[in-house]
Write a structure and sequence with these properties.
The chain is an alpha/beta fold. It is 48% helix and 14% strand. It binds zinc ion.
């Protein structure tokens, strides 16, 4: 049985993430981690904040804070909000950790030892008033091709031309607006990805389990030809550039590029986890030290695929060391906000902190799983959210649980009733549950996010159908033994729902498990419906929980639309 290593793309440090970030990496990773743990597998789910780079420096400056203090504070905020969403990270690390600095410097050393790094001189734009080199995205000016006045240093959004900031006419600093700029020569380290192209292509060929989206993105980059990539920057905030453990001459005021050190943090965060837990991080990452039984799954949005199928493999394969590489790369499309994009700067959409102010985590987890932007972009609308909460959670699941347990309290004193034997209706239910459980397990195992939600909902629907047909409220008058069988079976369904729903809606699942005396943390059921619906024995107490899912009212949607927008943008 393989051990399962799961990483989700590292959220960037500058502020609370929006629901699209949650839906496209952290949530599906968490759902899968919870599923595999319930199956009894050894799971390590790692995530971290991605803390280096210019945006962090600028966000800290805007907040009037030192960048290290800013990152420390933002990390704690993101960790707290993630936990409030039920993200069950085994470790939530920081790319600014000493472990990541050491590992990043190690990779640079071995890559250079193998002739895959060289120093080159670049002409970059220096802003005299800002007293810093400007990254491409922080320079704007007039497009030399079409004359558009706000072309960015790397690309013109008007005509789509890829640009070099040197070519912009009348350029200015986005940071200060200053036009007091000049080109200056600066030395940088380049990773010779062009030489690694055949190795990366051969490696990709071995990855039979990559889904089509990930494979096609990787092949597109390989077919276009990899270019050598600058892996250092003229910045103060980042991993210092060293050679053999000493500051590298001429690089004292430079750091490694954030995209070089960030994916290395997957490994370094595991080292951070080990430092606290006493675990053996190398056994998860080094194939020569036990990682050959590890199955490694990465979760990310589609914009991150190239970095994970080309750039990070270039670092890993180029090192020539036996590091574990990804087996399953699960990429997601975009969750859109009414057909447009979520935007922090324009305040469009719902962010993770505000989301929890208006609805419990499980409502969001269910909505974002059932409407996952998995095989295509999907759109957030208040109508879809309302349908997911009111119909699926409140009407189908919550209503069933409440009816069954209230009935048991009213008619059987809140004790699972004894007596009677399963009849034809129960046999049919057992067969149906067996088939649905087999399907649900297969969908979770395949990380088919939307199909998992559909299979889960199909199991919930069986409960109401069974109750409607079996009608214990009639049976109790004429045949109490028959009513006992029905209630006992239905309570076992509640216990089963707690177990199978736990990956997606862990908070409600724990409440359901507690209500009927099902064990927690949950174990995953077999596909034997008869056995799984006979676990909870007669004689043990049950307690109806308070209403599990409050319905969304029209007035709620009105309030939220006023606060977050939505309806008028449809
Ligand atoms: Zn243009």
């Amino acid at each position: 049985m393989p051990r399962i290593l799961i990483t989700s793309a590292l959220p960037y440090i500058n502020g609370v993430k929006h629901l699209g970030n949650l839906a496209g990496s952290m949530l599906p990773a968490d759902v899968h981690a919870r599923f595999q743990r319930a199956r009894g597998r050894e799971v390590l789910y790692i995530c971290a904040t991605d803390e280096h780079g210019t945006p962090a420096e600028l966000a800290a400056a805007a907040a009037g804070q030192d960048v290290a203090a800013y990152c420390a504070e933002q990390h704690l905020a993101q960790a707290a909000i993630g936990r409030a969403f039920g993200l069950s990270w085994d470790w939530f690390g920081r790319s600014s950790s000493p472990q990541n600095a050491r590992l990043t410097q190690h990779f640079a050393d071995v890559l250079e030892d193998r002739g895959l790094i060289e120093e080159r001189t670049d002409q970059l734009i220096f802003s005299i008033d800002d007293n810093r080199f400007l990254p491409d995205r922080y320079i704007e000016g007039t497009c030399p091709i079409c004359g558009f006045g706000k072309a960015r240093g790397d690309q013109c959004d008007h005509c789509g031309s890829l640009l070099d900031p040197i070519d912009l006419k009348d350029p200015y600093s986005v940071i200060s607006g200053s036009r007091n700029l000049e080109a200056r020569a600066t030395r940088h380290l380049y990773l010779l990805q062009s030489r690694l192209q055949p190795d990366i292509r051969a490696w990709l060929e071995t990855k039979a389990e990559f889904p089509a989206l990930a494979r096609s993105i990787a092949l597109k980059h390989l077919d276009e030809g990899l270019i050598d990539r600058g892996i250092t920057r003229d910045l103060a905030w980042g991993v210092p550039v060293t050679r053999g453990g000493q500051p590298r001459t001429g690089f004292e005021h430079k750091v490694f590029y954030v995209w070089f050190d960030a994916p290395i943090e997957y490994i370094a965060a595991t080292e951070e986890w080990a430092a606290t837990s006493g675990g053996d991080w190398r056994s998860w990452w080094r194939e020569d030290e036990g990682a050959s039984d590890v199955r490694y799954l990465q979760f990310m949005g589609k914009d991150n695929v190239a970095f994970h199928t080309v750039s990070f493999p270039a670092t890993i394969l180029g090192s020539g060391e036996p590091w574990k590489t990804v087996d399953v790369l699960k990429a997601f499309n975009w969750l859109n906000w009414y057909g447009g994009k979520f935007s922090t700067s324009q305040g469009r959409g719902v962010f993770m902190d505000a989301a929890l102010e208006i609805l419990p985590a499980d409502c969001w987890r269910w909505f974002l799983t059932a409407n996952s932007p998995e095989h295509a972009d999907s759109a957030f609308t208040w109508d879809l959210l309302t349908a997911a909460v009111n119909r699926d959670l409140a009407d189908v699941l919550g209503n069933f649980v409440n009816r069954v347990l209230k009935f048991c309290e009213a008619r059987f004193g809140g004790v699972i009733p004894d007596g009677g034997a399963p009849g034809a209706l129960e046999q049919a239910l057992f067969a149906e549950v067996s088939a649905r459980l087999a399907d649900l397990t297969a969908q979770f195992e395949a990380i088919e996010t939307r199909k998992s939600a559909q299979a889960l909902r199909a199991l919930w629907v069986l409960g109401n159908e069974y109750l409607q047909e079996a009608a214990p409220w009639s049976a109790i008058k004429s045949d109490p033994e028959r009513a006992a069988v029905i209630v006992r079976t239905a309570i076992n369904l509640v216990g089963l729902y707690a177990r199978v729903s736990a990956p997606v809606i862990p908070f409600a699942a724990e409440a359901m498990a507690g209500a009927v005396g099902e064990a927690w943390p949950p174990s995953w059921p077999s596909a034997d419906g008869a056995a799984e619906l006979s676990r909870l024995a007669a004689g043990s107490p049950v307690v109806a929980p308070p209403v599990m899912f409050r319905k969304i009212e029209a007035a709620d949607v009105e309030t939220w639309t006023a606060r977050f927008g939505g309806a008028d943008e449809a």
